[in-house]
Fold this protein.
Amino acid sequence: MNWLEIDRKHVWHPYNSLPSKTKLLAVKRTDKTKIFLEDGRELIDGMSSWWSAIHGYNHPRLNEALKKQVDIMPHIMFGGIAHEKAAHLSKLLVDITGLNSVFLCDSGSVSVEVALKTAILYQKAKGKEKYKFLALNHAYHGDTLGAMSVCDQINSMHSIYGSYLPKHIFTKEPELGFDSDCSASIKELEKSFKNHHEEIAGFILEPIVQGAGGMRIYNPKYLKKARELCSKYDVLLIADEIATGFGHTGKMFACEHADIKPDIMTLGKGLTGGYMTMAAMITSKNISDTISNSQIGVLMHGPTFMANPLACSVAIASIELLLESPWQKNVKKIETIFSENLKELSKLELVKSVRNIGAIGVIELIDDSYAQEIQDYCVSKGVWIRPFGKLIYSIVAYTISENDLRKIVKTMVEAIKNVELNN
């Protein structure tokens, strides 16, 4: 039995059935921004491995960080033990976020779980029984139970879990568009705070870009108002920067578009440059001091692979590489190419809207019936994208060549035009 037959019989892929009902591509190797398949085909990666491989694949500096660390200490438990790489990574994160207290964990969803627990602990340490969270319609924060509970429970992939999840408070999503008039959603937000602030421990949101809930780009003014209201009502602002962090929107962190600092930030995806599973929750010193100096005293969470030295080593190398590179210039160039080449699609009847920011380019179709056809076309032309429902999008590595990026965009445009022509 070859490995593909084993996969089909035993391996449950994400968001899929077993055996898979969708086509799976057998990958042999990767290099830079290319994916090489077992059958000899070569694809340009338009997804950067779910937005994590910000430097592309097999970067020699990241490879070396792993090779060096594996001979020293591949793993060590973090309970009662400290190690140099975790300390250095935490200091780097403190320096670039402006926050103080770092909890290193092993996935984005877990970092959200820890953030929610921390917000509840903080309020409890202050003598307040506040267990609910405010979240946005169209929000997505992960696939574990706590994270799912602050995802949109009507319009998201998690609606099937219904009443099983804790009931939180949801408010109108910001209007679509970086320069949009967001007064209506801000008015609803103010009402939500006024009516529920006594029971809300924190307000969690994805800054500037709502990801899997719709790839919705919104006005920084909304984020600025959220910061103002959280401060007014002593509600913690939790910025989920798992997808937006490390440069994807053109700023190191999307919160910088509004020039605000959250109380808690969650990070993942680009943290290790796509090499290892790792995430982080970072809080202000006030939060860690309030919890640590109360009767509660401790944060009761401890993943087995927390602060894994291999992951810490490659994360350090990835962040340092990013800081030393002309990433802002590269991302701006990517943004310009997306903007100039995708806008022609807005004239098509099949297309509802086109939008982009930073290294993110999005085409929203009128419905989700064409996703597989569009993906198949792109793959046939040597481009890897993975549509999500009616969203056809690309988020690329900052190191991608201009020729490869233009081929991604050209192929996406051709694919959608081809579908409209044939339907």
The domain at 3-58+326-422 is CATH 3.90.1150.10 (Aspartate Aminotransferase, domain 1). Residues 135 and 170 are 5 Å apart (CA to CA).
